[in-house]
């Protein structure tokens, strides 16, 4: 059984989160870590607390976790969560332990002690390898930023200090998978073939797009079912549960814009989905982690700062991928930006580094990877 311990040579104390006060320390630590990183976007503290609520959030109905804090001289200087996602392990027939929500001062001894605590905990849970960062799975925030530190993150994309790479390498982790994020702006010259070929495909009349004017829970369920079919063979995929879909609906329905989420049909058969979300990060930055009366005023005052959106899901069922539907989805995004004056950019990601078809479509269409994220792995036996 894992026990709190001290690295006496380094003066670092590792302990688990046991009280509300310690949970508050865990949640609030990033505000100190990122004090000198102006591009960092503070999350809503209430959202983080909700995700970490092991009694209420649906993720924890099929997962186990332990929250760790690192202290030196009485001050909290690091945090991490050790995870076992039973749904992932059952789906892939693996014994994966995971780590996530890692934040730490540039303190190699503290970081190493945190990772050692995670390793010990997941080994005791019977896991054979460790992967991260997963916050807490690929259905949420995934990966460590390794390129693109000079650019602000898009909604639900991670940001971290560059020194995290060295802290993770020093703990013995190796690259498992890189994730790309692409950025489309109105000034990018899209090759003519994108327009001519997509026009020809539309003229055939086989493809139609349907976007509900008002989304319902049933629409979210249908979206998730298509998501499962499109991503079922992808690295890292784990199916969402019905309870997670309900949670997703609660979070998405208030912010979905009509043309930002749609179903694609090929000869009247449901063939794919696309989901875009306004990039609320400029507002989140002004909220500084808090919701309240002041946040409502800030929303009114600064809503004009939302000038982009994130393409969260681009999914086409396998049997329709050679029918030109990925190109039509990409063309839809281009048209959306061009016709809506408010929006100047779209963040497309993430995309697996070995998703050659999608990456080639983006790059042949005039885009280049804008940011790169990495998921690490370490064998435990």
Automatic annotation (TrEMBL):
SUPFAM superfamilies from the UniProt entry: Acyl-CoA N-acyltransferases (Nat)
Lineage top rank: taxon: Bacteria
PANTHER family: PROTEIN YGHO
Protein's name in the database: N-acetyltransferase domain-containing protein
Species per Swiss-Prot/TrEMBL record: Desulfocapsa sulfexigens (strain DSM 10523 / SB164P1)
Taxonomic lineage of the native organism: Bacteria, Pseudomonadati, Thermodesulfobacteriota, Desulfobulbia, Desulfobulbales
